[in-house]
Amino acid sequence: MNRYDPAVALPPLSPEYDPWDPIRSLRRYGRHVLTSVEFTVTNLCNMRCEHCAVGDALTMTEGARVPLADVLRRLDEVEHLETISITGGEPSYRESTVKDYVVPLLKYARERGVRTQINSNVTLDLSRYEMMAPYLDVMHISFNYTGADDFHRVGFVHAGHPVGRETAVKMYERMMDNASALSKGGMFVSAESMINFRTHEHIADIHRLIVEMGCKRHEVHPMYPSAFAAGLPQLSLDQIRGAVTRLLDERDRDLWMLFGTLPFFACGDDPDGLELVRRLRREPNVTVRNDPDGRNRLNVNLFNGDVHVTDFADLPPLGNMERDSFDAIFAKWLDHPLNLRVNCHCDEAACCGPNLLVADAYYRDVDFKSRRATV
Ligand code: SF4
């Protein structure tokens, strides 16, 4: 495993240094290697968002997890580990999960010089997030709202029972207060918004609230049909391009903007799409991240040890951590026919191909392996 000298300060995350982007390891090793492991630590959540990409996996109760010692042993084996992500559900839903799994995983990472991210809705008690603060690199929150009514409309669609406006408003305010307090305390809060049928015309207003909360980064992804989002209207490429352009025009230029899973490629044949690719490269403080899913990352379900290519893949598990090392499972994925369909690479465009959901949603008939970047 890679070693870290704790006397050497870890480099700050910045537009120049984003260890989640698989283009870095692809360039460094000349092939895709596993540098990132994501753990699903819970399937419980206090919300049921309309667009939830793991909505089908959410539960009301859950059983025992794989022992932490087994998890750490498997992590020790990952030769090139650079990042760990923790996701759910809402990872802080139970305080015991934070104490028994989240904090120990974060501590392990910090001791090894590995960078960490947790995906949270930050609507619960501030103290749960403060417990993570000393060891956490990125607090990743979802933020798709222009106000409390939006939050109420979107956040409980699949709750199975009505959630009153007053309850929703309290949660919304707690989320805003927590994000502001954590940011003020020095935490790197990265707010993610999705571009979808609800947000695409209001994305600049959403951006302004993220700036107000003091977040260090605004991460933006189009929404793709997965789990709860599968039945929602899909935007056209023109609508997505319009939303990205609006954001670029109206953004706060001091805030790092990270775009991911964009459906615009340097090999495209639409001049407007190519112009947007060029503009994204020119804009200061703006990055476009290649998608880690299936490029440098695997997802591990901590309840049964199953390993998937993403936390929202419809594919059967690629393996199980009880039997196989993470590196061995990743090697198996590299030869998988689905990976071979989209694992193109144009280094001059800093691109290593589309995410599978993107290819399926917008480019079903395109053979990316036969294309090359033209800009
Ligand atoms: S790597 Fe693939 S998707 Fe990216 S520009 Fe090249 S051919 Fe297109």
Automatic annotation (TrEMBL):
State whether keyword Iron-sulfur applies.
Answer: yes
InterPro entries in the record, alphabetically?
Answer: Aldolase_TIM, rSAM, rSAM_sf, rSAM_YfkAB, YfkB
- List keywords of the entry alphabetically: 4Fe-4S, Iron, Iron-sulfur, Metal-binding, S-adenosyl-L-methionine
Q: Which residues cross the membrane?
A: none
Write out the coiled-coil annotation as residue ranges.
Answer: none
GO molecular function annotation: 4 iron, 4 sulfur cluster binding; catalytic activity; metal ion binding
Provide the Radical SAM core domain boundaries: 29-258
- Carries keyword Ribonucleoprotein? no
The name this protein carries in UniProt is Radical SAM/CxCxxxxC motif protein YfkAB
Q: State the species of origin.
A: Paenibacillus flagellatus
